[in-house]
Amino acid sequence: MKFLSALTIGLTLTLNAASAAPAASEPTAVGLWEQVDEKSGKTESWFHIVEKDGVYVGTIVKMFQKPGEPPPESWRCTKCEGAEKDAPVLGLTLIKGMKRKGLSYEDGTIMDPRDGTVYRALMKLSPDGAQLEVRGFLGLALLGRSQTWTRLPDTAIDPAPAPAPRRPPARK
Fold first, then answer.
1. 133 near 124, Cβ under 8 Å?
2. pTM across the whole model
3. Judging by DSSP bridges, how do beta strands 31-36 and 43-52 pair with one another?
4. I need a surface site. Which of 80, 91, 110, 134 has the fewest CB within 10 A?
């Protein structure tokens, strides 16, 4: 009887570990992403998403100039508030506070640097990790707007964005 109990406990631990394994091997939103204008089909910007202490943030790392617009390096967040007021848009963290739940990310915000509006945000990663649906909304998620971003290799930008800081391993 003790053997069966031990076998059952061992089998349960193995099954629990096996069911947790896919979640650990799932892709994450960490990396470099391309955002494309839905109307023109042209690339507007690249975002770099990092994770720190279970929170995901996204920074705009490259902007593409449209004809007749000033160079991206000169664009300031004039309508933003607080510390972001008049900050250069290039290098600004626009996605903040996202928390991962499998392939979904929630409880975060995304800011539109054109008017300084901060929207509640959701993100959903495709199972293969190649696309990221980013949704900003006010109030109900149904009343928002989504964009689908495409993953880029981290080597697409020179120099490659710095990886998220790693915590030292815990001492035993």
1. yes
2. 0.77
3. antiparallel
4. 91
The closest of 111, 105, 98 to 133, measured between CA atoms, is: 105
Cβ within 8 Å of residue 118, ≥6 positions away: 109, 110, 111
DSSP 159: S
Q: For residue 122, what are the β-bridge partners?
A: 135
For the domain spanning 27-156, the CATH number is 2.40.128.520
Report the C-alpha gap between 106 and 124 in whole angstroms.
9
Residue labelled with tokens 């980013």: 134
CB 22 within 8 A of CB 127: no
Confidence class for position 10, pLDDT limits 50, 70, 90: very low
| Local structure of residue 152 (DSSP, 8 states) | E
Domain extents for the chain? 27-156
Strands (E), the chain: 31-36, 43-52, 55-63, 93-101, 104-112, 117-125, 131-137, 144-152
Residue found under tokens 């008049």: 86
CB atoms under 10 Å from CB of 117, counted, come to: 13
Burial of residue 60, with CB atoms counted within 10 A of its CB: 0-12 exposed, 13-18 middle, 19 or more buried: buried
